[in-house]
Write a structure and sequence with these properties.
heterodimer; A: about 240 residues; alpha/beta; Rossmann fold; 6-stranded mixed beta sheet; 4-stranded antiparallel beta sheet; 9 helices; 10 strands; B: about 400 residues; mainly alpha; abc type-2 transporter like fold; 2 domains; 16 helices; about 5% strand; elongated
């Protein structure tokens, strides 16, 4: 479970995140939805302790990120906005590297890695160097290495960015599977159909603030709009930056 | 789900990062070539070529027949005979000796005045002129040779005239200078080898360069630093693993270069110039010991400098500039000879320069000097590592673009 309480982060005069609070529960997919530049990535970066919040608290499975950042990172599997791979290593070696950094014993590492390679259907590329991988192959490898330590909480920053239709479908199925395994899945997106199709709960962020935190149905009911797209536009106050 | 004992993670992170960096960079041809081929071997190669050119030129000049255009050769046949014995080949007279010399058509021209014969017979002093251009340094040996031959002939003739008048030749030379050169064959070599420490430094720098760039600027450019930092490993441990990888590469480069110099040292005909060059095992081990703290210092400095760069290319530019810094102490010592004082050994780079020069001279280094050198450089290295660690903790470092 991920709890975020009143997060603030400013870069100079720009308030990137200005009082964000929400809770992402186990066995649910929580979507962080907002236009580009709304503060989604900055919020997530504070969750996985890459950045320190100016104010506010982050709790992951009850561990305070300010007190025990390493403990928090241990509970998290993260697919950041930047998902660079080591191009001179094979996909398998990329996964192994992160597994070892998590301290997985070699036998556990092997079984976890092979299970992920199978689940993500990347057996054909596992022993190829990642140089020249397609966007989809790259995301698969990045997800595998993010989840190799079997984390209870999964954070994905715009996971479908740059993927084609087939890869996007496969990824959505994979996220549903993570949910069914009882994990807490938190992902950000600026694509409302994706959020609507997947999420149990939607947190809408605009201008660094949470403007809505509901289930998709409740969101529709709250705005009085039948169409989710219209509901979002109404909440955010403009249709700027929302891709269809 | 996640039940990995914390103890296990602590021991492995450093080694994991180190091994991964080594493996990844061993697969990069550019890194390999610069770290293990061009970097460490270019130095010895250039060195051997330079030395051989210098030596051969000096040797040639000392032994080879020396053609000298002579004006008025017919007035002084005996002098010319004496010159011929000394290896001078008198040439045809030239019309404009000044121009010939300036245009480097001849190193030196000898001009004998037409009244040479009459003055000689009267026992009056006569003059022979040597026309040369001292700004052309490779002409100097020729000028010296001819001068020495002419003066030798003059002294010999003078002595004979004294003897003919019943006087001892020593009357004319009441004082004699006896030169006692204290240079050993090894210390004579030092002048020529003053730049040797710089070659070692350059090798260390090139050996670690691509890794140092990769460590921050490279990881950031290919956006892998942020996922890396999402792992439950403190950043300083990641940094230490990476520094160790840089050190491993630059130490290997240094070893290759030391071996190359040892091999190459055998092919330098230094003994022909009365020099002795000892680049063998004893020299190699001591030089390695002196240079080791610099390996760590440079690894930290390179990572520090690269961390400021926004891109790979920028980092490359900065690091190339960094390579020029260590040339300062080498140049300083080559141009102005300083009397070494104890504290100087504690100054990084300067200490290594002094120590290696001493080894070359065959004086050896004392334990105290080695101690000062290691302590001073190690201290600087630790400070550099600490500053780099501090830099590595910055929030902005990980964020790509």
């Amino acid at each position: 479970m991920i709890e975020v309480r009143n997060l603030h982060k400013a870069f100079g005069a720009v308030k990137a995140v200005d009082g964000v609070s929400f809770t992402a529960r186990d066995g649910e997919i929580t979507g962080l939805l907002g236009p580009n530049g709304a503060g989604k990535t900055t919020t997530l970066r504070m969750l996985y302790t890459l950045m320190t919040p100016d104010r506010g608290q982050v709790l992951v499975d009850g561990i305070d990120a300010a007190v025990d950042p390493l403990g928090v990172r241990r509970q998290l599997g993260v697919l950041p906005d930047a998902r660079g791979l080591y191009k001179r290593l094979t996909a398998r070696e990329n996964i192994d590297y992160f597994a070892r950094l998590h301290g997985l014993p070699e036998d556990l590492l092997k079984s976890r890695r092979d299970a992920l390679i199978e689940a993500l259907e990347m057996g054909d590329i596992a022993d190829r160097r990642t140089e020249g991988f397609s966007q989809g192959q790259r995301v698969k490898t990045a997800i595998a290495r993010a989840l190799v330590h079997d984390p209870r909480n999964v954070i994905l920053d715009e996971p479908t960015n740059g993927l084609d239709v087939m890869a996007t479908r496969a990824l959505r199925q994979f996220m549903a599977r993570l949910k069914s395994e009882g994990r807490c899945v938190l992902f950000s997106s600026h694509i409302m159909q994706e959020v609507a199709a997947l999420c149990d709960r939607i947190v809408v962020i605009a201008h660094g603030r949470v403007v809505a935190d509901e289930s998709p149905d409740a969101l529709r009911a709250q705005t009085g709009e039948n169409n989710l797209e219209d509901a979002f536009v109404k909440i955010i106050g403009s249709d700027e930056g929302l891709a269809a | 789900m996640n039940t990995v004992p914390a103890k296990l993670q602590r021991t492995r992170a450093f080694l994991t990062v180190f091994l991964k960096e080594v493996k990844e960079n061993l697969r990069d041809r550019r890194t390999l070539i610069s770290a293990f081929l061009t970097g460490p071997l270019l130095g010895p190669l250039i060195f051997v070529m330079l030395i051989n050119i210098t030596l051969n030129r000096e040797l040639d000049k000392a032994e080879k027949p020396l053609p000298v255009p002579v004006i008025g050769a017919e007035y002084a046949p005996n002098l010319l005979d004496a010159l011929r014995v000394g290896g001078v080949v008198p040439g045809a007279p030239v019309a404009d000796p000044e121009k010939v010399v300036r245009k480097r058509d001849a190193d030196v021209v000898l001009r004998i005045a037409s009244d040479y014969g009459t003055a000689w017979r009267k026992g009056e002093p006569v003059q022979v002129e040597l026309i040369y251009d001292s700004s052309q340094s490779d002409a100097n040996t020729a000028v010296e040779r001819v001068t020495r031959l002419v003066e030798g002939y003059a002294r010999q003739q003078g002595a004979m005239r004294l003897v003919a008048r019943g006087l001892s030749p020593s009357t004319a030379w009441p004082l004699q200078v006896a030169k006692r050169d204290q240079a050993t064959p090894q210390s004579r070599a030092v002048l020529m080898f003053a730049m040797l420490p710089y070659f070692f430094v350059i090798t260390i720098l090139t050996g670690g360069m691509y890794l140092a760039i990769d460590l921050t600027a490279g990881e950031r450019e290919r956006q892998s630093l942020e996922p890396l930092f999402a792992n439950p490993v403190p950043r300083w441990k990641i940094l230490c693993g990476k520094l160790a990888a840089i050190c491993a590469f630059s130490t290997t480069s240094l070893l290759i270069t030391l071996v190359a110099f040892a091999v190459v040292g055998r092919f330098i005909p230094a003994e022909k110039l009365g020099m002795e060059l000892n680049l063998g095992l004893h020299f190699g081990i001591n030089a390695l010991l002196l240079m080791l703290p610099l390996v760590l210092l440079f690894a930290a400095l390179q990572s520090m400098v690269a961390a400021f760069a926004k891109s790979y290319r920028e980092a490359q530019t900065y690091l190339s500039l960094l390579m020029l810094v260590p040339i300062i102490p080498s140049l300083l010592l080559a141009v102005m000879p300083i009397k070494a004082r104890a504290w100087m050994y504690a100054v990084p780079l300067l200490g290594q320069n002094l120590g290696i020069t001493q080894l070359l001279r065959g004086d050896g280094v004392t334990a105290e000097q080695i101690g000062l050198c290691l302590a001073g450089s190690l201290m600087a290295a630790l400070i550099a590592v600490l500053v780099t660690t501090q830099l590595y903790r910055s929030e902005r470092l990980a964020i790509s673009v």
